[in-house]
Write a structure and sequence with these properties.
Belongs to the CRISPR-associated endoribonuclease Cas2 protein family. One of its GO terms (molecular function) is metal ion binding. With 107 residues, this protein is of the alpha+beta class. It is 36% helix and 24% strand. It has 4 helices and 4 strands; from the N terminus they run βαββαβαα. A 4-stranded antiparallel sheet has the order 2-3-1-4. A hairpin with a 2-residue loop joins β2 and β3. It is globular, with a radius of gyration of 15 Å. The termini are close together.
């Protein structure tokens, strides 16, 4: 079976002015990590899916679990498109190196 792996990239900017804002921010961040997202960089997380259908279903679940304040954007790209990302400074995190489509392919 051939899978068209998809990568969901989530960008967020949440307020952290009040103690309640910081609690909401931390809760959302923990939600992302618990649900398999990895941090690409500060406030940018991504998750890999076996196909577009699974990613779209996840977006529906995600929409029910986002904070009411701030800005949250998502970008859905194929794993092939994601692999073409250029890193200008720094490099891939250890987690990014381990979690890729190769980790899901059974030989």
């Amino acid at each position: 079976m051939i899978y068209d792996f998809m990568r969901l990239i989530l960008f967020f900017d949440l307020p952290v002015v009040s103690k309640e804002d910081r609690r909401i921010y931390a809760t959302f961040r923990k939600y992302l990590i618990k649900n398999g997202y990895i941090m690409m960089q500060y406030s940018v997380y991504c998750k890999i899916f076996a196909n577009r259908e699974a990613a779209v279903k996840h977006v529906n679940v995600l929409q029910r679990n986002v904070p009411q304040k701030g800005q949250i954007r998502i970008l859905l790209v194929t794993e092939k498109q994601y692999a073409k990302i250029e890193i200008i400074v720094g490099g891939k995190s250890n987690q990014e190196q381990v979690v890729n489509s190769d980790a899901f392919i059974k030989l």
